[in-house]
Q: What sequence folds into this?
């Protein structure tokens, strides 16, 4: 079997296609969760705690700290964006990490709830299958049984 045919057989198998579809849907779902966190949840947390986690960081070198302080002085205490601060030198971006960690927790919780619902639906479906009465025998089998019973009587 040639390499191309072998690869084609592998790529066309159902489980590979299912995995590819799952990865694509998972990526899109991740973007939805990321947007929900960035656009809905974090602004509410920012109002309640008066904080924007993404731009909370600590400069690790004297050059970075001096540049960050100079920006704050020049902008009335404003905070330099994380991207601009990173250009000054190494930054301990604890706020960005916190945001990513919150994203992960929310995504994990949503996926957990989805799996839990799917397992419950699957269990209910299996319970219905077990409770369902067996299908009635086919008409020709019933007729043959009646003929057999009539022949036994004679």
A:
């Amino acid at each position: 079997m040639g390499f191309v045919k072998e690869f084609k057989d592998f790529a066309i198998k159902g489980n590979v296609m299912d995995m590819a579809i799952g990865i694509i849907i998972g990526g899109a779902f991740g973007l939805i969760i990321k947007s929900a966190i960035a656009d809905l949840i974090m602004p509410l947390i920012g109002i309640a705690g008066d904080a924007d986690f993404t731009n909370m960081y600590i400069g690790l070198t004297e050059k970075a700290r001096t540049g960050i302080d100079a920006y704050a002085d020049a902008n009335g205490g404003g905070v330099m964006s994380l991207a601009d601060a990173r250009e000054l030198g190494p930054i301990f971006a604890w706020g960005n990490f916190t945001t990513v960690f919150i994203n992960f927790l929310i995504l994990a919780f949503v996926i957990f709830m989805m799996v839990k619902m799917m397992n419950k639906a699957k269990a209910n479906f299996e319970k219905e299958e077990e409770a369902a009465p067996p299908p009635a025998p086919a008409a020709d089998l019933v007729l043959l049984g009646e003929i057999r019973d009539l022949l036994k009587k004679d």
